[in-house]
């Protein structure tokens, strides 16, 4: 029996990267998964195959999590299909590399919309359902080392992740009495599609690798293992914390 046997997890942005890795891992520990994506259905279909191969059930829900109405129907679908949900992973995230002076309003709105507004309203919809049933729950936000550290060229991204850090700390206090825990995972440089540009730029990648004490990029499995732990009974007394999964990057950082 897996640690999450019979539980249901909603994972935003689980058609690729870290979200897909978390879906696979939570399914392997027994959880059924609500897979969410916005752009490319193929990735979400691949995640569904992984979930089923792990012996769990999954559904795929297309929703732009930066839109409040879409978020409500995403959460509603979990209850319709599985009767309830126990775990929410706010994973969907976007970034652009743009100098502050060139930053555009539409990029600002998209990044804050996906990285900060979405966790706010998905969590609200999820907690409203739990509170109505007096059920406990687990919320895990995929943040970044940049919830705390500067990242030149990524001012909006940093603002969104800094906001996510304080949202988590505040909700830890508001949701604790409901038996709901909330924590952030702060990945460093993980090999996923969000890093495509970096992965294709060998000199830049080599320079970054020199600054990672463990000498390699992280994998989605590195992050997913921590998500599974935080979702499990083993982490029952943990709330309001950020966990770094960064190979030591944040202790020795000068990326640019
Ligand atoms: C960003 C990556 C970056 C990494 C380390 C992550 O949050 O998504 O683009 O390489 O932080 O700086």
Description:
The longest helix has 29 residues. The chain has 8 helices and 7 strands, in the order E-H-E-H-E-H-E-H-E-H-E-H-H-H-E. The chain has a single domain, classed as Rossmann fold (3-Layer(aba) Sandwich), CATH 3.40.50.720. With 256 residues, it is an alpha/beta fold. It starts with 7 loop residues before the first strand and ends in an 11-residue tail after the last strand. Bound molecules: beta-D-glucopyranose (BGC). Beta-D-glucopyranose binds next to loops.
Short description:
This protein is an alpha/beta fold and 256 residues long.
Any descriptors?
seven-stranded parallel β-sheet; 14% strand; 256 residues; globular; alpha/beta; binds beta-D-glucopyranose; Rossmann fold
Label the CATH architecture. Answer: 3-Layer(aba) Sandwich
What does the main sheet amount to? 7 strands, parallel
How do the strands line up in the largest sheet?
A: 3-2-1-4-5-6-7
Distance between termini? 46 Å
| Total domain count | 1
What assembly state would you assign to the polypeptide chains in this entry? Answer: single chain
Beta-strand share of residues: 5-15%
CATH superfamily: NAD(P)-binding Rossmann-like Domain
Shape: globular
CATH C-level label: Alpha Beta
């Amino acid at each position: 029996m897996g640690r999450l046997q019979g539980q249901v997890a909603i994972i935003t942005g689980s058609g690729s990267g870290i979200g897909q890795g978390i879906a696979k891992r939570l399914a392997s520990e027994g959880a059924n998964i609500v897979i969410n994506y916005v752009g490319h259905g193929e990735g979400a279909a691949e995640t569904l195959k992984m979930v089923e191969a792990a012996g769990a059930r999954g559904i795929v829900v297309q929703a732009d999590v930066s839109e409040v109405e879409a978020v409500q129907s995403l959460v509603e679908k979990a209850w319709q299909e599985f009767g309830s949900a126990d775990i929410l992973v706010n994973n969907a995230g976007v970034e652009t590399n743009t100098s502050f002076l060139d930053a555009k309003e539409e990029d600002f709105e998209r990044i804050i919309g996906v990285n900060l507004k979405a966790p706010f309203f998905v969590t609200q919809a999820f907690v409203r359902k739990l509170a109505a049933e007096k059920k406990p729950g687990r919320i895990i936000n995929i943040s970044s080392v940049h919830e705390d550290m500067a990242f030149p060229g990524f001012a909006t991204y940093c603002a969104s992740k800094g906001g996510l850090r304080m949202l988590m700390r505040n909700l830890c206090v508001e949701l604790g009495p409901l038996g709901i825990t909330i924590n952030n995972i702060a990945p460093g440089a993980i090999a996923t599609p969000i890093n495509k540009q970096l992965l294709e730029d060998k000199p830049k990648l080599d320079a970054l690798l020199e600054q990672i004490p463990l000498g390699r990029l992280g994998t989605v499995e590195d992050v997913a293992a921590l998500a599974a732990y935080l979702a499990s009974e083993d982490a029952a007394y943990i709330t309001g914390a950020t966990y770094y999964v960064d190979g030591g990057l944040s202790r020795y950082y000068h990326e640019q």
